[in-house]
């Protein structure tokens, strides 16, 4: 009896552990007007006459997303729908039942988007580009769980013409796929594309890496783009000694395409996804493929810095999450051969040192970065450059004091291993304790001064690795490299110390 009782108590828990949702995404010949029709079917815990569904009205800074939703239709009579944007919710009234089945349409809410509207659903006759969170509604009884919910979702792609490209972060070119995993960090951190995308594939240690891209780009060499992407990915996975996820996708799409020279800039945005990342860029005669290579090096590094080494304190640790990411975007481009030592020195001077010293908020304390990160561009960029320069300072300290047998690279790999353990994350304290094991000295004072307080680093040549000097005679310091480039490159990259890549367990 006791056993039976326990079993009865456990049953609802077990049944609720992995809820299932069925989706069908339907093609229409005129997607720009009809939208993608999504049919959802879910079994609720109890028979009710209404069910709440989650649909975020704001995703990654993109507001009013419920405007992209419409065309609600229940399976039979008796269905009614109420959209509540403030609660990120659609209320579905239905006959008293446990099986709720209805459909809705996801459309663009403007004929053309601006270059900054990168996260709105794009659904046109030629292609679609929709975040998972803006494609699939999930019932509130799953979403509202205090711990991150897990779910099973089957997705069927219905009626798409033969040859129509269908690709997403979980599957490629299939008409039926099943997802099992976490809601927020996996199912909703995803991207679905289709239509005139061009799909390419290469492998790293037998794991597929997809490149899904579209658009006719100015000054563009597709094989060259794919090659430098492969070069970056190989250098980074080798660096972390990590074979990467079972599949990975880099998405690349144009935002606003112009053929004239009215706007001389390039606006490129990158965002990390589960098992990949996306880039979206303006496309005009001023396209810079150097900027693009920097972007994919930076975005890819977030798989580790920010992804596996997760900061516990949000923007307060952006000096690390963005700054050290930026530092390694440059250092790994030197490592992969994408930049020569001369080009690396030039880029580090122009993009990091000069940008920091020209920033009007350069000496503001770290806590103000948190307050103003999203409000001010100068504050938003500050942790990138301050952190990158501090990383260079620390890297030099470790190289020098270890007699060029260890570098910041070793510290980063050790940090990753520590943060991969359950419940572990990045904190200033963990970082400082680890740095102490490399330097045999506590750098809390320097950390407080240069990172938290925002004081300029007083560069002295004896502190730098042999071959580097910092010219401080001008208001903006200038990094210089002396002696044979190959010897300095080898010393700085600490090529002898690095181990062979190994597959992830
Ligand atoms: Zn970043």
Automatic annotation (TrEMBL):
It comes from the Bacteria. Residues 1-17 form the signal peptide. Gene3D superfamilies: Neutral Protease Domain 2 (1.10.390.10). Keywords: Signal. This is Peptidase. It comes from Hymenobacter guriensis.
């Amino acid at each position: 009896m006791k056993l039976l009782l326990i079993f009865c108590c456990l049953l609802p828990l077990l049944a609720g552990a992995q809820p299932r949702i069925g989706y069908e995404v339907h093609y229409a010949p005129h997607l720009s007007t009809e939208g993608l029709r999504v049919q959802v079917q879910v079994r609720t815990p109890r028979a009710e006459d209404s069910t709440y569904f989650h649909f975020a009205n704001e995703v990654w800074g993109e507001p009013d997303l419920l405007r992209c939703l419409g065309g609600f239709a229940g399976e039979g009579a008796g269905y009614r729908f109420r959209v509540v944007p403030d609660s990120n919710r659609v209320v579905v009234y239905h006959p008293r039942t446990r099986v709720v089945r209805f459909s809705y349409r996801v459309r663009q809410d403007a004929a053309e988007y601006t270059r900054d509207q990168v996260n709105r659903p794009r659904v046109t006759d030629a292609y679609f580009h929709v975040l998972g969170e803006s494609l699939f509604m999930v019932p509130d009884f799953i979403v509202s769980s205090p711990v991150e919910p897990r779910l099973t979702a089957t997705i069927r792609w219905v009626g798409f013409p033969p040859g129509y490209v269908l690709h997403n972060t979980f599957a490629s070119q299939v008409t039926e796929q099943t997802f099992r995993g976490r809601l927020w960090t996996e199912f909703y951190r995803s991207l679905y594309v289709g239509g005139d995308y061009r799909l390419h594939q290469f492998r790293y240690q037998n794991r597929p890496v997809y490149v899904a891209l579209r658009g006719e780009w100015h000054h563009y060499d597709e094989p060259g783009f794919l090659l430098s992407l492969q070069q970056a990915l190989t250098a980074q996975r080798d660096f972390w000694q990590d074979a990467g996820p079972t599949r990975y996708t880099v998405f690349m799409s144009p935002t606003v395409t112009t053929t004239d020279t009215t706007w001389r800039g390039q606006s490129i945005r990158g965002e990390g996804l589960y098992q990949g990342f996306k880039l979206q860029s303006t496309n005009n005669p001023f396209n810079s493929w150097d900027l693009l290579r920097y972007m994919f090096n930076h975005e890819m590094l977030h798989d580790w810095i920010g992804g596996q080494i997760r900061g516990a304190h949000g923007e307060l640790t952006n000096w690390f999450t963005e700054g050290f990411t930026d530092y390694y975007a440059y250092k790994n481009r030197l490592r992969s051969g994408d930049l020569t030592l001369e080009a690396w020195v030039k880029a580090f001077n122009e993009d990091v040192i000069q940008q920091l010293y020209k920033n009007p908020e350069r000496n503001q304390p770290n806590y103000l970065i948190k307050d103003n990160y999203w409000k001010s561009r100068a504050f938003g960029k500050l942790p990138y450059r301050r952190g990158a320069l501090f990383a260079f300072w620390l890297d030099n300290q470790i190289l020098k004091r270890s007699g060029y047998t260890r570098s910041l690279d070793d510290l980063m790999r050790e940090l990753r291993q520590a943060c991969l353990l359950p419940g572990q994350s990045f904190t200033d304290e963990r970082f400082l304790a680890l740095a102490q094991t490399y330097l045999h000295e506590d750098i809390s004072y320097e950390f407080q001064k240069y990172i938290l307080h925002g004081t300029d680093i007083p560069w002295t040549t004896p502190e730098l690795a042999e071959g580097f000097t910092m010219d401080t005679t001008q208001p903006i310091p200038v990094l210089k490299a002396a002696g044979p480039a190959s010897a300095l490159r080898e010393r700085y990259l600490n090529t002898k110390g690095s181990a062979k890549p190994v597959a992830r367990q």
